[in-house]
Design a protein that fits this description.
By secondary structure, this protein is mostly helical. It is 69% helix and 1% strand. The protein has a two-stranded antiparallel sheet. It starts with a helix and ends with a helix. InterPro entries: ARM-like, ARM-type_fold, CAND1/CAND2, TATA-bd_TIP120.
Length: 1257
């Protein structure tokens, strides 16, 4: 805290005769005033303000500048007392007309920009400043200070203007726009834009439009007046589209009248008049661009047809014939283009040099009309993708013609970009077809046809492009070859164009692949090493064979070499290696023409030899990042497995793996590569015993590292299965497995691989000398059910080294048959040694309940090869056992006998299921359905049986209890096309049939988890199925059903994005309204000792709901082409969502903050307009302050303190990331909102020191 004496001394020092001391005093005072911890007396603050006003007139510029800076912190200290300072500054009139602001105006700017969020202060300043500004209208039109001050006042305090002040200011600005000089007029339009954000009254807008139209009509210069009007219209739509959209039709009429399309053929003999007309058309197109960019309602949609008609004409507008054609070739695409030459003047000048384009601004600006018309065309199809077919019908042929004849570089580039965007929209995963699918889904969901007729037209973009593919490719090639300067000016535009054409057409054919690569590379002065170059080659690799590169292959190889050899740009290296991976993933295939495949594989092999040295260098360079070395490892792995490499090359790669295996951070990926090498069999010729011993040395050491142990065990099982080991290696592996045994590291996940390894080792290692240890390992492994699948083979190998009696004695030496592990081993031993003499006794034991587990294991093995001709009922009693191992073994045995002999035993099992619908029974049925194929009739019968069973079952306590029946229903729906039956049951099931309802909802995890099911099912059925298992479930009154619905929603989001977005559009508003707050009916009180605790059973459901909203934004991030499908208006939902989420459980509050950032990124204008009486931004700040200022009770427990601390830290990280969005203009705030935001940040920085230290991504 600053001492009172210190501040007094500084105040005195500001009056010192030494300017350096005055400067330092002001600097130190500014720091003290900015620090909210300091408590400074009011008289000191008043003195500080008076000194600052005085120092603005200081003779030394450094002191004046520092004084100016000090005004930034002054409003926080003075608050309401800032008003006299503002009054003093506003009365400091400029002494002369200047194009720059005075220092007093700058001081006012610093004050207005940093005003506290106190309405009294803002209203007071408005009442002081506005009268002064309005007092002398003539000076306002001449001196720039006034418009600067008014702009700041509107920007930072505009929301506090009352309706009268808004009306007066609007009228004042309207007059100034049409009467002041050019600079002040433009600044007035900008100020109007800020003011229009606060206009909500329809009456005010109507009066404003009436006044500005009258001023326009009476303006002395017709073209200048219309230009000003169009600028105002552009700003109106950009600043407040919500309020001005109802006037879109009225303003569109003004825009279209200024375009004077019906006068295009009438060339004005006065050249200057013609240029004024064309400049007006440019302004009108700019206004149209603002309209269609910011207004996306149905009203605007209906204007797009007229707009496209205008674009059709204006993209080829050329009154002086600058683009006159020299031949007839360019008419090949469209013979029916009419009246094109009506707009050309045969005597017009042409531009031979692109360098003269800038000079064209003074001569002939018709190119600007064409350029802006292309911008409007792109904007319309971007914001209204359903208009793409109409746009193509009207403009596509003209665009292709213009590619041949356009001579202006700027227009030519924009033509390419527009064409590229058209192809991007028309690709299979582009906006048009996604919207078409979304429309189909919406119709299915709503049960009615939508009124959007444009989507129902017969003009399929893909069909158009395929039919014109040859002409398209020829014209693009001609463009590239004849316009080297343009290609070099913006190579990314041409790379993107060719990439989008290739992806949309699904390949351009071998001839054009070669031609494109050669043409572009020959046009470039230097190769553009950009992401777009990577996409360019990637598009060809995805859709065509590499042998189609032809003469372009050397260019491609050179690109890859330069990428890999680059030492300064890691991203370029990674992209180069990514392309290499694509080569091996897409090009080494055996399908297609035989000769072509041979050539393709030969090229891949040659490429491998050229690149292997680069990749090995990257892999073994320890100075490179792990990411780069891992990418090199992936590339080399693919190369070895796909290309035909010689022995020495493969050995060099294998030796490099030995080195990377020794590096722990690369060990996991290296182990995966070794697994692929040893299991493929393709490089066995290069695998040597020495290499195996070298890698085993590292692998066996890693056995003890828990993170790597599972992968190591799997790798060793593959090595031993391939036979790449000798006796010494086998013994080393046995010792390592013994270490796992000693450290109790056997798990259900590694027991099968250990069993496989032991089986393989017995081919080369004799274990009779240490049989006891080996048996102890077996007994430990036998406790895992998963080990059962490898135990018989392992037992056979053991019996090759010892007798069954000796082995039986060895096993029983550990325990008797009552031990389930010993019982399992003895049963498998008896079956493996074909000791069937006691089968009758075994059956009798099951019937009498003696040694049941042993008997089931024994019979399970026997039934795999022999049908005992017994009744299934012999085994079914095991389902009711109290011993879990007996129940599990019963399930296995019943599955074995039914799968092996379904005709005999499946009917018996179905009869049993009807009266004994238990979880184990459904688990058994699920396993049976995985292995047995039913007739459609049998499948339907079984489906109905399960439905009937679940309908009559009582409600259980946990959703997992229903999953096994749901698994069976899902399998039947998928395998036997019973989804329509499933939908019928869902429609007919009453909400009171809880067990059946939960079971039906649970089927989603099995159906949507199956890619083949999603591919084969009809879209309409999938949409209906999705809605019925999410929307109908989430809003149910039963908590278990609600949880199933929330789970399904998240699953569908991850599996079928289009459907999920359509669902979210419909249900998110209802979710925010009813489901994100704790439900009192799900909260219960539980006594723990003498204390009462509230248990919120609905917490897990709410977590899933909040996660689903976050997942929606993650999906949109990963699928940018689908963003337009999401039309949730978060402006209407934000306040309730944020308030509820931030107050909830710590997990939910964290997810809420992350989601809020996504909302800001997705809808940056969310705070621009309020919703009714709800002040969205103010409510947001208030909630943040409540969290930051919440006081913890003195007697609070440790958990509550930690919870609040963690929440504050999360919120601070959130605020810092939001601040980045605000600074980068990715979250739009008005002037007053910006001031309030800065105030919050300043308060937080002052109160929480961790603000500076808390890291954010």
């Amino acid at each position: 805290m600053a001492s009172r004496k210190c501040i007094n001394d500084l105040l005195v020092m500001t009056k010192d005769t030494d300017p350096d001391l005055r400067f330092m005093a002001l600097n130190d005072l500014e720091k003290e005033m900015s620090n909210t911890i300091n408590h400074i007396a009011s008289y000191e603050v008043d003195e500080y303000a008076r000194i600052l006003l005085t120092r603005l007139n200081d003779e030394f510029p450094e002191v004046r500048t520092q004084s100016l800076k000090c005004f930034e912190s002054l409003p926080y200290r003075l608050k309401v007392d800032i008003l006299p300072v503002v009054r003093t500054l506003i009365n400091k009139k400029p002494k002369k007309v200047s194009i720059t602001s005075t220092i007093y105006t700058m001081a006012l700017h610093n004050i207005l920009e940093n005003l506290p969020l106190i309405e009294e202060v803002h209203v007071g300043i408005i009442n002081i400043v506005l009268p002064e500004i309005f007092s002398d209208r003539e000076k306002f039109k001449l001196e720039i200070d006034y418009i600067e001050i008014l702009t700041d006042l509107i920007e930072y305090s505009g929301k506090y203007f009352n309706q009268t002040q808004i009306f007066q200011t609007l009228g004042f600005l309207t007059e100034v726009i049409f009467t002041a000089d050019a600079i002040i007029s433009k600044k007035s339009i900008s100020a109007y834009g800020s003011l229009s954000k606060n206009i909500e009254s329809i009456e005010i807008i109507e009066n404003f439009l009436k006044n500005i139209t009258q001023l326009t009509n009476s303006y002395k210069n017709f073209y200048e007046g219309q230009s000003k009007l169009l600028s105002v219209i552009s700003v109106s739509f950009a600043s407040n589209s919500l309020s001005f959209e109802p006037f879109a039709l009225q303003l569109w009429e003004i825009i279209s009248s200024c375009l004077k399309v019906n006068e295009l053929g009438d060339l004005d003999q006065d050249y200057e008049n013609q240029q004024e007309k064309d400049n007006l058309r440019v302004e009108a197109l700019t206004a149209a661009l603002s309209l269609f960019k910011n207004c996306k309602s149905d009203n605007t949609y209906f204007l797009t047809g007229d707009c496209l008609d205008i674009c059709e004409v204006l993209i080829k507008y050329d009154p002086y014939g600058d683009n006159s054609e020299d031949d007839e070739e360019s008419n090949a695409l469209a013979d029916d283009i009419k009246d094109y030459n009506d707009f050309e003047d045969e005597d017009g000048d042409s531009y031979s040099d692109y360098e003269d384009d800038e000079d064209a601004d003074d001569d002939n600006c018709s190119w600007k009309v064409r350029l802006e018309a292309l911008n409007v065309l792109s904007c319309v199809i971007e914001n209204f993708p359903q208009r793409l077919p109409l746009a193509l019908k009207k403009c596509f042929n003209d665009i292709m013609i213009l590619l041949d004849i356009e001579k202006n570089k700027n227009v030519l580039l924009r033509l390419c970009e527009t064409l590229s965007f058209i192809f991007e929209l028309s690709s299979p995963d582009g906006a048009y077809y996604n919207l078409l699918n979304s429309k189909n889904m919406a119709e299915t969901t709503n049960g009615r046809r939508l009124s959007d007729v444009s989507m129902a037209c017969n003009d399929d973009p893909y069909a158009l492009f395929v039919g014109s593919a040859e002409n398209i490719n020829e014209k693009i090639l001609k463009l590239i070859r004849s316009n080297e300067a343009v290609v070099n000016d913006k190579p990314e535009a041409f790379l993107k164009l060719v990439s989008n054409i290739t992806r949309t057409l699904g390949g351009v054919g071998s001839h054009y692949v070669e031609s494109y690569i050669v043409a572009l590379n020959q046009s470039w002065n230097s190769i553009p090493y950009t992401v777009q170059t990577h996409y360019f080659y990637s598009a060809f690799l995805e859709n065509d064979k590499i042998d189609s590169f032809g003469d372009g292959l050397p260019y491609f190889v050179n690109f890859l070499k330069n990428c890999l050899s680059n030492r300064s740009n890691q991203k370029m290296v990674l992209e180069g290696m990514s392309l290499i991976n694509e080569i091996f993933e897409t090009q080494c295939l055996g399908d297609g023409d035989y000769n072509s495949t041979i050539r393709n594989n030969d090229i891949v092999t040659q490429l491998s030899y050229l690149l292997v040295g680069f990749l090995l260098g990257k892999l073994t360079d320890r100075n490179l990042s792990s990411e780069m070395r891992l990418q090199a490892l992936n590339s080399l792995t693919s190369m070895c497995l796909k290309a035909q490499l010689d022995k020495e090359t493969v050995k060099s790669i294998l030796n490099a793996l030995t080195e990377t295996l020794s590096t722990e951070v690369l060990a996991f990926n290296t182990l995966n590569a070794i697994k692929k090498f040893c299991s493929s069999g393709k490089i066995n010729f290069a695998i040597s015993p020495e290499w195996i011993k070298a890698i085993l040395g590292y692998i066996l050491q890693y056995f003890k590292i828990s993170e790597l142990s599972g992968t190591c065990v799997k790798t060793v099982s593959i090595i031993t299965s391939s036979g790449f080991f000798d006796e010494a290696d086998g013994k080393s592996i046995l010792l390592a497995i013994g270490t796992l045994f000693s450290n109790k590291m056997f798990t259900p996940l590694n027991c099968v691989d250990i069993g496989i390894t032991l089986t393989n080792i017995l081919d080369k290692v004799n274990i009779t000398s240490d049989m006891t240890t080996f048996i102890s390992v077996l007994i430990e492994l036998s406790k895992f059910d998963e080990f059962d699948e490898v135990l018989p083979d392992l037992m056979e190998k053991i019996l090759l080294q010892t007798t069954d009696s000796s082995l039986s004695q060895a096993i029983q030496s550990f325990d008797d048959i009552s031990d389930i592990k010993v019982s399992k081993l003895l049963a498998v031993l008896m079956v493996t040694s074909k000791n069937y003499t006691s089968i009758d006794n075994i059956i009798q034991n099951i019937q009498s309940g003696n040694d049941v587990y042993f008997s089931l294991v024994f019979l399970n093995q026997v039934l795999k090869s022999v049908d005992l001709k017994t009744e299934l009922g012999l085994f079914l009693n095991g389902y009711s056992s109290n011993e879990s191992n007996v129940v599990n073994m019963t399930m296995k045995t019943v599955s074995t006998i039914v799968c092996k002999y379904p005709d005999n035993y499946l009917p018996q099992f179905m009869v049993f299921l009807k009266g004994n619908a238990s979880t184990p029974a459904f688990k058994t049925l699920a396993n049976i359905l995985d292995h047995v194929h039913l007739s459609h009739e049998s499948a339907s019968h079984l489906f109905k049986l399960i439905i009937d069973v679940q309908r009559s079952s009582p409600q259980l306590d946990n959703t997992t209890e229903y999953s096994n029946a749901a698994d069976c229903l899902g399998a039947l729906a998928f395998k036997y096309n019973l989804l329509p039956d499933l939908l019928d049951v869902l429609s007919a099931t009453k909400s009171s049939h809880l067990t059946l309802l939960i079971t039906l909802g649970d089927t989603v995890k099995y159906t949507f988890g199956n890619t083949q099911f999603l591919e084969n099912a009809e879209l309409s059925q999938l949409v209906k199925y999705s809605e019925m298992t999410t929307n109908n479930f989430i809003f149910h009154s039963n908590l278990l059903i609600k949880e199933v619905g929330a789970f399904n929603l998240n699953l569908i989001l991850s599996k079928k994005v289009n459907i999920a977005i359509s669902l979210m559009n419909k249900i998110v508003p209802n979710i925010v309204e009813t489901e994100i707050k704790p439900n009192k009916s799900f909260i219960r009180v539980q006594m723990i000792g003498p204390y009462k605790y509230k248990i919120d059973d609905g917490l897990n459901f709410r977590k899933q709901i909040f996660e689903s909203i976050y997942n929606l934004f993650k999906v949109l991030e990963d699928n940018r082409g689908l963003e337009f499908l999401c039309d949730i208006e978060w402006r209407l939902l934000f306040t309730k969502y944020f308030d509820c989420g931030i107050k909830d459980d710590q997990t939910i509050s964290s997810v809420t903050l992350l989601t809020t950032l996504k909302i800001f990124e997705h809808q940056p204008e969310i705070f621009v307009h309020n919703f009714g009486d709800v002040q969205i931004f103010e409510s947001f700040l208030e909630r943040c302050r409540k969290v930051l200022n919440k006081k913890i009770a003195d007697n609070a427990v440790k958990q509550d303190i930690e919870k609040q601390t963690n929440l504050v830290k999360s919120l601070i990280r959130f605020l810092k990331r939001t601040e980045r969005l605000v600074e980068s203009n990715h979250l739009l705030l008005s002037g007053s909102q910006l001031s309030a935001w800065k105030a919050l940040i300043s308060e937080t920085k002052a109160k929480f020191l961790i603000y500076k230290t808390e890291e954010v991504d």
